[in-house]
Amino acid sequence: MNGPRGLPSVPGLNHAQNFAGPETVFKMTLSCSRCGSPAAALMSFDYEGSAVWLDDLIEPVEPQGYRLCADHADRMTPPHGWTLTDRRTVTRLFAPVHVA
User: Fold this and answer.
1) In which region does residue 6 sit, left (phi positive, over 0), alpha (psi from -120 to 50) or beta (all else)?
2) Per the count of CB atoms within 10 A, which of 5, 51, 63, 83 is most buried?
3) Phi and psi of 21, rounded to 5°?
C-alpha cells in the first residue's frame, strides 16, 4: 500500500512515522553475527599473531571484524594457543562503596 508521496507504507507505523520527510534519519541497529541479537562488541583477530580482540562497537564498524551481542562476547573463548584481549570499556552498575 502506498502513502501520499507514492512511497510504500511500513506496517506498524502511523502516517507521521511512515512519511516523516526527507530530513528524517532512521538509525539501523547492527546485529550479532552469531544470533541476530543487537550487537554490542566487535571481535577482530590476527592469524599470524594468534590474537583475538574484543572492542566496543562504534560506528562506522570496522570491516575486519565480527559483530557480537553482549552474551556471545562475554562467552568468547579463543582457540587453543591464542590470546584474547578484552578492550571493551566496563560500565559499572553500582558506585563503589567506601567503608570508613
Assistant:
1) left
2) 51
3) 110, 170
